[in-house]
Amino acid sequence: MKAAFITRTGPPEVIEVGSLPDPVPGPREALVRVRACAVNPIDTYVRAGAVAFPLPFPFIVGCDLAGEVVAVGSDVQSFRPGMRVWGSNQGLLGRQGTFAELAAIDERWLYPTPDSVSDRDAAAAALVSITAHLGLVSHAKLEAGEMLFVNGASGGVGSAVVQVARALGARAIGTAGTEEKRARVRSLGADEVFDYRADDLVEAARAAAPNGIDVYWETQREPMFDRAVGLLADGGRIVLMAGRDVRTPFPVGPFYVKGCRMVGFAMFKADWRLQAAAALDINRWMAAGRLRVPIARVLPLDQTSLAHALQEASTVARTGVLDGKLVIEP
Ligand SMILES: NC(=O)c1ccc[n+]([C@@H]2O[C@H](COP(=O)([O-])OP(=O)(O)OC[C@H]3O[C@@H](n4cnc5c(N)ncnc54)[C@H](OP(=O)(O)O)[C@@H]3O)[C@@H](O)[C@H]2O)c1
Q: In this structure, are 17 and 59 located in the same domain?
């Protein structure tokens, strides 16, 4: 099969596209003909060796996939050949990745794709929607009627967070870098979207949420805790999910006096049961047209190296060149 893989960690150019043996599904695995997979920032950290996972070389890059089951192992219960599936959390913790024509995946990490949802949309939504669900439902316990603020609402995670919050009956406001991106986030259901560079951002957010923010979701590596805690209502929660090396001063006083809480998490550490529960809701929302993660570009497998360079430039160097997810079609 054709695959995008690395034999050592390094810059995007270490990704090779070539032939590897077809994977043979184990007893609990389904063999998936991959029709679409999406790039996530973590793919670039794993490729670069910046997160220390065991890498079975040749290591196939990528976490997300959508496609069709073509064979199943003897103990597979939930899937049979011909079924459309999507999934995430591959290419991590020693597991092989998804950027290939075929992938053998433990059935616990696969979910049926609703008929009305394309493989592109299912792949684009995979990791970011599970992240949004874990953060809002399991960790922040966002409730209907509450107000969410997403710093970086136009990104992959941010655009899923806004839509999941709306699907849960909450309201959302947030930030983005350009007028086009702000308009797009509004079209996803946010009441107000501000320029994250604006001097009057805090005043504007207070005007949009006079009773305060119940959940402040930070997508950035260097959180602005003074701003976040200042905007929170009593009992507010902060969600953190980026910035491994960051050590930032923290406004302890207002945080405890308001009775706030803060949670950090990494989606790949969530148990498969929790992720499968998230996928049930995600499927319902995708099928109802309530959750659709914007796609910036669709590229062939041969351009995986370019896709990594673009993702890195956009997310790590913060150029914002991407206006949605990068989807690869093997
Ligand atoms: N812990 C976990 O489980 C988990 C899961 C997924 C992702 N992550 C991490 O979360 C981060 C975001 O991931 P992603 O996939 O959403 O990346 P992304 O698609 O590149 O989105 C980045 C977001 O940051 C915004 N941004 C850039 N500069 C900003 C600034 N100065 N102030 C506020 N916002 C700014 C961008 O806005 P514009 O594009 O409008 O400029 C965009 O909305 C990455 O570090 C990723 O590794 C963690």
A: yes
Q: What stretches of 91-232 show up as alpha helix (H) in DSSP?
A: 119-133, 156-167, 179-187, 201-208, 225-231
Q: Which atom of ligand 1 is nearest to the CA of 265?
A: 1
Ligand 1 in reach of 154 Cβ (< 6 A)? yes
* pLDDT (tens digit per residue) in 295-315: 999 999 999 999 999 999 999
Residue 269 near ligand 1, beta carbon < 6 Å: no
30 with 88, same domain: the answer is yes
pLDDT at position 52 is 85
Q: How far is the CA of 220 from the centre of ligand 1 (A)?
A: 6
CA of 158 to the centre of ligand 1 (A): 7
Check whether residue 211 and residue 282 sit in a common domain.
Answer: no
What number is the average pLDDT over the span 87-95? Answer: 97
Give 111-163 pLDDT, tens digit per residue: 999 999 999 999 999 999 999 999 999 999 999 999 999 999 999 999 999 99
Atom in ligand 1 nearest the alpha carbon of residue 182 = 40
Q: Is 220 in the pocket of ligand 1 (CB under 6 A)?
A: yes
- Say if residue 116 is in the same domain as residue 211: no
Question: Is the beta carbon of 241 within 6 A of some atom in ligand 1?
Answer: yes
Is residue 320 classed as helix, strand or coil in its secondary structure?
coil
The Å distance, Cα 275 to ligand 1 centre, comes to 21
Express each pLDDT in 180-201 by its tens digit.
Answer: 999 999 999 999 999 999 999 9
Which of 130, 50, 49 has its CA nearest to residue 89? 130
Domain enclosing residue 63, as ranges: 2-125+271-329
If asked whether residues 95 and 164 sit together in one domain, one would say no
Write phi, then psi, for 87 (nearest 5 degrees). Answer: -175, 175
Task: Return the structure tokens found at 57.
Answer: 């070389």
Ligand 1 pocket member 41 (CB < 6 A): yes
Q: Which residue has the tokens 């990490």?
A: 109
Residues 65, 187, single domain; the answer is no
Q: Indicate left, alpha or beta for 259 from its phi (over 0: left) and psi (-120 to 50: alpha).
A: left
CATH number at residue 97: 3.90.180.10
Q: Closest ligand 1 atom to the C-alpha of 322?
A: 39
134/223 same-domain check = yes
**Number of domain units in the chain:** 2
